[in-house]
Design brief:
Layout: H1 3-16, H2 19-34, H3 38-45, H4 52-68, H5 78-91, H6 97-113, H7 120-129, H8 138-156, H9 165-191, H10 201-214, H11 226-241, H12 252-270, H13 280-300, H14 309-325, H15 327-331, H16 339-356, H17 373-384, H18 389-413, H19 427-451, H20 454-472, H21 481-492, H22 503-514, H23 522-534, H24 536-541, H25 546-557, H26 562-575, H27 584-597, H28 602-616, H29 621-631, H30 633-644, H31 650-669, E1 683-687, E2 690-694, E3 707-708, H32 713-731, H33 736-753, H34 761-772, H35 778-791, H36 798-818, H37 827-843, H38 847-850, H39 855-865, H40 871-888, H41 892-916, H42 926-935, H43 937-944, H44 959-971, H45 976-990
Antiparallel strand pairs: 1-2, 2-3
Helix pairs in contact: 1-2, 3-4, 4-6, 5-6, 6-8, 7-8, 8-9, 8-10, 9-10, 9-11, 10-12, 11-12, 11-13, 12-14, 13-14, 13-16, 17-18, 17-19, 18-19, 18-20, 19-21, 20-21, 20-22, 21-23, 22-25, 23-25, 23-26, 25-26, 26-28, 27-28, 28-31, 30-31, 30-32, 31-33, 32-33, 33-35, 34-35, 34-36, 35-36, 35-37, ...
Pfam families: IBN_N (PF03810), Importin_rep (PF18773), Importin_rep_3 (PF18806), Xpo1 (PF08389)
GO molecular function, one term: small GTPase binding
Subunit structure: Interacts with UBC9, RAN, RBM8A, eIF-1A and PAX6.
Amino acid sequence: MDEVQSIEAAVLSFYRGGSEQQKETHKWLQLVQNSPRAWSFCWELMQLNKPSEIQFFGAITLNSKLRSNWAEVPKEAHHELKQKLLETIVVFGNGPKIVLNRLCISLGLFIVHMLRHPTVIEEVTNMFLHEQLGTLSKVTQIEILMAVLEGIPEEVKNIRTQIPRSVVCEELNRNAEFVMQTVVTYLNEKLSHSVVEQHDMNGLINAAKCTGTWVAHGNVHLNDREPMVQTLLKAVHYCYWKEPKDDGCLMPEENELAETALKSLANIISSYATQNAKYSFTIINYMKMFLDVLVPILDAEYKEGNDNENLALMVYALFISTLECFSSAIFAGIVTDSDEVSKVYTRTVDMLIKCTDKPGTYPVDESCSTYAMEFWYMLQEEVLSMDSSEHKKRCLEAIKPVYAHVVKVLVRKSQLPTESSLHKWTDDDLEAFRCYRQDIGDTLLSCHDVLGDLMLDVLSEALDESIMYLSYDPQSTESWTLLEATIHAFCSIAQKIEYTEHQQIVKLLRVLNEIPYEQYNDKLFGMALETVGAYSEWIGDNPKYLPSAITLLVKGLNSTKASQATLGLKDLTSECQKEVVPYALPLLDACRTALQEGHLKNAEMIRLMYTVGNILSVIAYDNIILYLDAMVSPCFEELQAHVQNNDRTEATKARVILRLEMISKLFSSLNIRKPTEHDGSSEKVVLGGQKMATFPGTQGATVGQPVQQPVQPILLILEKTMGLLKTLCTLWIHDETVIDTLCKALQQALANLLDDIKPLLTEMCCLVLSILNTNCVVSAADIAGNFILMFYKDEDSQQLMVQLFTAIMDYNFNQMQLNIDKLSRIADLIETFYAFNTRISKKIPICYSEVQVDCMKLMDYATKCMMLPETGPMKKSVAFITMFVKESTNHPVMMNVVLAQGENIVRSTFLCIGGTALRTQVEIFADIFLALNFRYPPQFIQWMKLLEIPNFPTAFVSASDKEQFMRKVIKERVNKRLVQDYVRKFAALCRNIVEYETK
């Protein structure tokens, strides 16, 4: 079997075989594609008598070679290659389409490589225009030509060419007007006929695409694009109005042409976005054209469930894109003496109000209304950012009625689906609607920025209307949606409401307590609970409304909406912690009952423990002990039972994790020494091993006399349960999830106890050490790091901290050595490890000198880890190297590491910039250059000379570019923004990517 037959068999095996077989075959086929022989066999595969899979493989192989291996084609073979390409295009001119499309791309790639020849685009274009391609029809030749021209600018972004990028850009700009003129002439010629032949549609579609891809080139003013804009609008108008359809739906080809024309129009506008002021008059003219041609289409489609919804979406997208690019030009019409500008602004606002108020429910009946949300944000942003106070005031007054109307529209549009309509909704629809409601909530915040307190008046009216609507038919079970939507609107703006006792909020809270929720869908109750939680801060400023809020939330604990109730209580007890004291004990009793009854879900139980901690923090100490015993003991009793039974089943694991998460949440909020306005300046001292504090004005004590403070409740809990936690840790030491949860609970305890942890410090550190030596989960390293940062300089604890530090380093070094060829497997561990070392480098760098740690290895691994594809390890490694270098000059051990590893650091950094790191992430490596250049300027100059190595870091960057980059970076020691810019541009050169300058 010869090579071609082997390739054909492999291709058929790939497309028709199983997944395992496909994987191996794919690797082999890739090797075959990369070989120089591919230039020969690709043509043999593209024969009409071959199966389409083989033809397609031949076409994509040719694509691949043209894109990546052009250097393998000798100059004298260029003409032959062009002829073969054209001949093969003729062969496949009538299909299969997938092969023809690839051949069109290949011809475009060939043209890019040949751009040194100034007439190459004109020659190829004229060849197609004058029907010089054998037996292909004129229609087919034009269709192919437009596809080829359309792809050229796109291929430039990814192709490896021997022509300098500057020359490529120059040639694209020089040819742009010729291409555009050719395309627009063709479009106008075809669209000037009363009927466009069906066989011309593909050519028209490709031509419309072509205008969008070439518009970024040519250095042409926006006002000179008017003929093209008119032509594309003509295409949309023709497709929609050419003849009435029985079902009202456009044919697929007409729909594609119209949508393509709209996309190209958006591309034209966005290409000039940075020149807002320059084209104010032009953009008003274009907007008028858009409004005249496209709004009648929107009016015709202003109905539920229309068949051309996607076309309407594209029209709205064009308007929004134009507004984003040229907002100030259009918004000048809010208050202006120009009748023309005013009309364009007014018509635009009217059109987008109708878009917001599109008939039907999103997304099952319509999908357009979400597009207008961005406009309402843009408009308020434009007005509120105006400088002139008088002009700003006039504009604000002008748009207030618009926003008041929009608020009522948004409330109506945000109504939830009723039970009877849910059969029409898929899970995707429900998720889309959830996001839509979130967008409405965000838009209502923008409305509030415009309306101020008037917003509450508008919503109060809406509340009255929704209650009235509910009373029209008290027996109806589906009339609740408008009331729920109105409450949702109040909830959405809660963060904007200041402490004033607004009567509208007072009315809202009264209504929320009066609604007979049992008569309606439980979603109404859920929204009410969420809203009470959202107004927690306001209630804290107006505490007389606290009892009614607590009553409603406690009621929610025993309902199907316990999730919203626990969220609301969490917020309420956080924002109103002092104010809740008079109601604390009944509220604790309600929480205890809810926890005991067992109807709460795990997340609700965990969240409720945060509320319990908040309340316990402010009640009398004796009561804290009583309620802790009643509410926390069950958690530890269950854990004790599992430990005694040596039970490690999955069911038990779930219960252990639940109980540990409940304890963790309690630890995060229970703190009797939280600073307040009155004791924020209190000073803690240690007397006779007892924690004491002095508080101004303490009753029964002389000023300045120490007053003994009770032991922190968390410390009491830990003292009683440390033995249990150790046993639990031993039982589950090999289960990362359980150990991680346990460590997080201890972390929360440490965060609240701080120095108060000291009586248990040795025991806790020993527990953490046992974890570090066996299963170094992320949270174990975190808590160990916190211990070290807090207590390393404490003489009594330093030896213990050294043990912790050594354990962390040894475990991570071992894991990295075990996974040296596959470090991505331990990406999370690496991220945590280098985040920890960054903190050590910054806070207590003396560690690296005093503890026996192999810092050379630490830095060497960091240079390897920053080359990983995962963003987390890469960023943390870079941050560590940067901080280590900055601090090293004060510590000889660290300085020796930097001097020894400096060249390795710079080499790895260049490899990341050159291609290892994502291009969007390369700017972070500027931090390493700045740190090295600032602390070690002479050595940095030497290390940078690595760039003198040929083809380093890639073959695409020239020696002069490297020299220029080196000179610029060495010059800058503190200007981070400049060095980031140099790095970004250098990365583009290394990857052979053109960075197009904005017009």
